[in-house]
Amino acid sequence: MLLYVDAQYASPYAMSVFVGLKEKNISFDMQTLDLGAGANHLPNYAVTSLTRRVPTLIEGDFSLSESSAITEYLDEVYPGVALYPAAPKAKARAREIQAWLRSDLLPIRQERSTEVLFYRPSDAPLSIAARQAAQKLFDAADRLLAPGREHLFDTWCIADVDLALMLNRLVLNGDAVPARLADYAKRQWERASVQAWVNLARPPL
């Protein structure tokens, strides 16, 4: 199995699939693409990836792009740690959380890029739009995380990685985050599969 990721190992979506593969204990190789140089648009990759984005997973003659599609496929096909809850309503909620985090909160993603997580913090204050997005994130996370619960659901799932990553864009930059949510993000970040991605050797920017 082969996983295509970005050359900086900074894509939150590539990270999500990497963690899923680690949790499933699936052996895989990684191939990096220099997105800044447009390597994802070269003909050979365009044939491999329908969306011309990372991550893309190659399994024999089957290729699949888009991170949540990949993790759902892995969970349906491979045994091991469950990446999604088994109960239909909980599974739907996990998918909702993933879709929301990938499509909303743009000011946070712009002003606290993944460079904050894997390279260096930003010294620019959050804009009004980013502060509003952060409050929306906090309100949702507070509703989703039941008091005293370590994960979004009864046990860990891949949506915990995605939510913790969004919160850590702020936590690891030193921005104000409610203590309960910051503690949750820290615990999720310490998971062995997550640390395996965090500790990858990254090239300088």
Describe this structure in words.
The protein has 205 residues and is an alpha+beta fold. The chain has ten helices and four strands, in the order βαβαββαααααααα. A four-stranded mixed beta sheet has the order 2-1-3-4, covered by helices on one side. A hairpin with a 2-residue loop joins strand 3 and strand 4. Helix 1 packs across helix 8, helix 7 (128-144) packs antiparallel against helix 8 (158-171) and helix 8 crosses helix 9 (179-189). The longest helix is centred in the middle third of the chain and has 17 residues, at 128-144. The radius of gyration is 17 Å and the shape is globular. It starts with a strand and ends in a 7-residue tail after the last helix. The relative contact order is 0.15. The model has no long low-confidence stretch (mean pLDDT 95).
